[in-house]
Amino acid sequence: MPKSRFDPQKHHRRSIRLQGYDYSSEGAYYVTIVVQGRECLFGEIIDGEMVLNEYGEIVQKWWNEIPIHFSNVELGAFVVMPNHVHGIIFITADRRGEVVSPRNDPNNNIQDAYDDGTNNLGGQTPPLRKRTLGQIVAYFKYQSTKEMNRIETDKAITQFWQRNYYEHIIRDEKDLQRKTNYIRANPSLWDEDNDNPKNT
């Protein structure tokens, strides 16, 4: 399947998303997230198989962590490529509700979850928040970047990912199967991939 390449002249940042669409809606979404400058940072393709390096392992880890942070998210097919990732995200009905999580506090102190500084555990329960696809992707990008920067001692790469991402709303089972097959076959298609630096 030929891969459509993002063209900044045709796709302005505001028009990448479908106008008026609620990206917190239940459904399946295919996403592609590309490394800044299409630099090959995550490993290499050997004999049609992706071999992850340390950065690639971090990327895989934080993708797998998404459903732990977002209780209404399930994951489909996923692949780390040398300079991008493809994955399928399912946003489902949240049966458990959402819990405010402490903000990056290594000691997991409960008071960090509150904005008013009072540490008051009583009061009114805030309304549940529906998380959008953009927030899910932003969490993945932020957490993976933070950990990759921890191991980069010589020259910190502060921005590993391109600012935006490509998404496709999966419409039906056939569409889901096509995207799943494409993701699984992606390493074997690397020689023809538009993101392969040899093809630019």
Number of helix segments?
3
Give a count of the beta strands, DSSP E runs of length 2 or more: 6
Kindly report the oligomeric state of this protein.
single chain
- Low-confidence runs of at least 5 consecutive residues: 1-16, 97-123
Q: Give the N-terminus to C-terminus distance in angstroms.
A: 18 Å
In spatial order, strands of the major sheet run 4-5-1-6
Classification by helices and strands: alpha+beta
> What's the average pLDDT?
78
Using only CA atoms, what is the Rg?
A: 19 Å
What is the approximate shape? globular
The succession of helices and strands, N to C, reads: EEEHEEHEH
* Helix percent band: 10-25%
Tell me the β content: 15-25%
- Largest sheet at a glance? 4 strands, antiparallel
What is this entry, summarized?
The protein is of the alpha+beta class.
